[in-house]
Amino acid sequence: MAAVATNKVSYGETNDDQKNIFDLGAFVGDLTIEEDVSSDDISLEGLQQELEECKNDDVVANILSKGAKLREYTKGVENNLRQVELDSIQDYIHESDNLVSLHDQIRECDSILSQMETLLSGFQAEIGSISSDIKILQENSMDMGLKLKNRKVAESKLAKFVEDIIVPPRMVDIIVDGEVNDEFLRTLEILSKKLKFVEVDPMVKASKALKDVQPELEKLRQKAVSKTFDFVVQKLYALRKPKTNIQILQQSVLLKYKYIISFLKEHGSEVYTEVRGAYIDTMNKVLSAHFRAYILALEKLQLDIATYSDLIGVETRSTGLFLRGREPLKNRSAVYALGERIKILKEIDEPALIPHIAEASSSKYPYEVLFRSFHKLLMDTATSEYHFCDDFFGEESIFYEIFAGPFAVIDEHFNSILPNCYDAIGLMLMIRIIHQHQLTMSRRRIPCLDLYLDKVNISLWPRFKMVFDMHLNSLRNANVKTLWEDDVHPHYVMRRYAEFTASLIRLNVEYGDGQPDLNLERLRMAVDDLLIKLAKVFPKTKLQIVFLINNYDMTISVLKEASPDGGKIQMHFEELLKSNTALFVEELLLEHFSDIIKFVKTRASEDPTSSSEKPIAVGEVEPLVKDFASRWKGAIELMHKDVITSFSSLLCGMEILRAALTQLLLYYTRLSDCIKRIVGGSALNKDLVSISSIMYEIKKYSRTF
């Protein structure tokens, strides 16, 4: 070890024996460590740190506190260890008997464990053998399970095959001897499945079991087909009985057995064809007879509206003697006016007429009422039959074969009526009825009447056009001499035209067809020409104008009832009324105040102060002023009476008189203004009638007219 130079401290002299706490820092703080230059192996680096770490160690602190040296302490420790070793040897010697006994016990345990090892090895060998057996058993079990599964599948298929192919005695009894009821229908379904089974599967056809069963199945099929055919035919014959409610029989009886038709269709096609044909023939005849009887009953209720001579431009007195016998059946006001006939469009979905009830009440109806009635019956019958054919037979095409007869009956009737129909209003109503019926069938989603309704619609339009052209030609070719009457009130031809036009406008408001509008424009031009010709027959211009005004006013009033908003035709007549009213006002004023009007129109606009060749003098206007002052009230009274007697409409007359008096006031105002500009015109002021007086008279007549 390196030499360490330290200051000697006497531990025994400086330390008190009873001092329990030793200050290690104070003890080592005075040590001076010098490096031993001759030592290469020992380094004291870190010694200070280790001393600090041992500072709190109890053993080290105790050693240092006692002042013992390290060598002495080491010897003490070695002595202690030697003593412990000797004590331990003594313990072993003392416990030697126990150790021998323990050794014997360990040997006995080792022997026992050896036997246990041998026994467990045997168990292990036996367990391995058992595991091998279990594997064999598991494989056998899986094999048996697979075989069982295959046998179950084979059993189920075989059971199904046997079930599908065998013919139970109960089935034979029901098919052969049973009544046609719900049980029969269920048995029929089972038979159908068996027949399909032996026909569809090729493996079944090759089986030997089929050879035994097939003859029996065929006999059952034939018996079932024969029995169901007889049953259905019997039910179809019930449809032919008089007063039979066909729809109730179809819904409550036939539809209940509709599976019979499916069975015949699949397993008895020839018999199905016979049943189908029998039903078509039966319903064709029954429905044809019903519609024929219904139409004949309706014809007795028909009210004739118009004949070929009931035209707008035909003179009333030209009606032949042979037509007078029909007059009681004719509603003359309905020939041109729509009137209450339009209600038929609001009653479009009402039930069809019952002829014997209507006949008992002696009611008569225009043809469009009968037309709607039998078409309503046709739609309801067709809807019911269409649904039944689809449900019972599964065929929509069968409907058209059934209704070939009813369509022929209706066509025969309609083709006999249409060529003799001269009622243009009725024809237009029938066109609108057909349109409403088409919408009804569309809402029902029933297409079976589409072609028929289109055909009827197509046949109605040409007939309407022909009758309309007859009216048009009657106006164009009218004899003015025979039509003219010495009467300025509305002409009956013009009233016919107005009512006829208003009726067609009203029937076209909600539909907006362009063709009627074009036809009405042609008709308007024709009646304009005829009215002008009739007016020119009057000898005086005033009477011509009055005649035109009365007819225009009447026409406008009738047209307003059809279309309050006014249309192109109404606006045309309003313009004509306005222009002719202005002409009449001039004619009326010229009749009573011609001198004043002539002066106002020719001289009143001149400037009296200008250096013209002949200026207006007081003497020129004085007679006019005095003449007006002396008779203006009487002239107005005469104008009032003239208007009252000339015009049929009080409202129109009031407007015309007001316009005339207003125009008179304008003329007189211009005359008064002219007099004020004349030199010396103030001398006439005493003879001038005040404007307020004239206004008072105008208001008085406006109130009392």
Automatic annotation (TrEMBL):
Major localization listed first in the record, in broad terms: Golgi
Residue span, Vps52 coiled-coil domain: 91-264
Pfam families: Vps52_C, Vps52_CC
InterPro entries: Vps52, Vps52_C, Vps52_CC
All copies of domain Vps52 C-terminal, residue ranges: 281-585
One annotated GO biological process: Golgi to vacuole transport
Molecular function terms from GO: syntaxin binding
Keywords on record: Golgi apparatus, Protein transport, Transport
Gene Ontology terms: cellular component: cytosol; GARP complex
Subcellular location as annotated: Golgi apparatus, trans-Golgi network
Spans traversing the lipid bilayer: none
Domain of life: Eukaryota
Family assignment from sequence similarity: Belongs to the VPS52 family.
Name of the protein this chain belongs to: Vacuolar protein sorting-associated protein 52 A
Organism, as annotated: Carya illinoinensis (Pecan)
Lineage summary: Eukaryota, Viridiplantae, Streptophyta, Embryophyta, Tracheophyta
